[in-house]
Amino acid sequence: MTLPVARRAEELRELYAPDAPGTRRAVVMTMGALHEGHAANIRAARERVGPGGRVVVTVYVNPLQFGAGEDFDRYPRTLDADVRVAAAAGADAVFAPADSAMYPGGAPQVRLAAGPLGERLEGASRPGHFDGMLTVVAKLLHLTRPDVALFGEKDAQQLALIRRMVADLDFPVEIVGVPTVREPDGLALSSRNRYLSGPERRTALALSRALAAAARHSDATGARAAARAVLDEAAAAEPPLALDSLALVDPADFPEAPAGHTGAAILAVAARVGTTRLIDNARLTLGAAA
Length: 290
Description:
By secondary structure, this protein is an alpha/beta fold. The protein contains ten helices and nine strands.
């Protein structure tokens, strides 16, 4: 099956023209280099809107969310392969705009601000990243006009910010998180995994091992310590893991969870292996029997 690919907003509107009134629409936003994690999001979108609905996959490497020295120029761009993955997973169309279509006047002067939540964890490591992410997500929501938008839970802080934006600004869309898809060895699927050499990939497995070690503890102190022990060991490996952040946070707005925290929590980790930066997270329930 060959999917139609819209490159401009006008082409996207033409694709929507035949839709019957009340047709439910879903969007899955990506930066391309689609893998099984994206495919899971697309399949979930199809389930949400049913066989008569429309699922659109966006493919756009957004320059606004890349900082100086990050991998914007080398980020993989594989549109033909992406279209095939989207089709196999059940999408109806792909929206793959060029920069000139997304930002016809150049870099936008008016942008969304992520606020305090966007300044923590990933936001502290990558200043401005979440402002750029929310700006493009807001624009793509306007262009694709979905009833539901699906995002992977691997980017937990991103998902929390999108939900907050939609609630605060009254976007008429349901935001759905899709569980993280992992390789058989536990590594969370990411388009950046292709940058890893064999030895680097073995070191990168420490991220998922650290999360699994933390999950065996029912208290915040024990969970943090267990994860830190695994990551410290990986820091001494060859090649080494360079930890950016490890945080146990309240999922509501991502403040660091106190030692006595009970209930839902997210353990989030970000690290570099070689030149590749990876993130992962696990949802924990603290105060319950381990």
